[in-house]
Amino acid sequence: MREFVELLVLSDHACLNPRAERIEVYEPIAMESLFVTIFRCCMQVYSEPSARAPSVPALRTVHQEAAA
Asked: Which of 7, 19, 23, 60 sits a CA distance of 20 to 30 A from 35?
């Protein structure tokens, strides 16, 4: 298992030969999307909120279901 170090600021990454992969991750507890940049060259990761709304349907609450 590999361990990554989280960067607080993207400019902290200072490799001369960066190998990066950027993916979008949905975080179900907070119900938000994040962009995660993984720097495989030095095992560092940086996450930032996604600008667009998550692509999951809105959940109905119990109160809304009882009223329907």
From this structure: 60
